[in-house]
Amino acid sequence: MKLLAVVATALAVFSTAEAQTTQVGCRALDTKNDGLLTELLLNPSARGAADPDLRYGFWDAKWRKCCNKYKECDKYYTFSYNHPYPWAYRQRRGTIRGQQFDFACVNWRTGACK
């Protein structure tokens, strides 16, 4: 009986963790700032200051081509985010090493990235 309770608890925890994971993609509005965007997103303090909804940790980050349901594609720095990201599209201004730039992030639950 105890084993059954442990398994049920583990499944509940895993399901909750899975539900919290969101695929997010960000891109600089001017591609010359792609390097700054990567640096900003890898810096937890700068990332949280630029967008408080991105203050939590993430993993599996890399540049990918993402397409929306209309087959419009662009290059995004995507990552698995361990917290819900409530925005379908959100534009922000970030600062890293004293340089400001504009970027946008999207929630790719409805998109596809390769």
Automatic annotation (TrEMBL):
Protein keywords: Signal
Signal sequence residues: 1-19
Claim: Signal is one of the keywords in the record: yes
Superkingdom of origin: Eukaryota
Keyword Signal: yes
Protein name, entry field: Secreted in xylem 9
Source organism of this protein record: Fusarium oxysporum f. sp. lycopersici (strain 4287 / CBS 123668 / FGSC 9935 / NRRL 34936) (Fusarium vascular wilt of tomato)
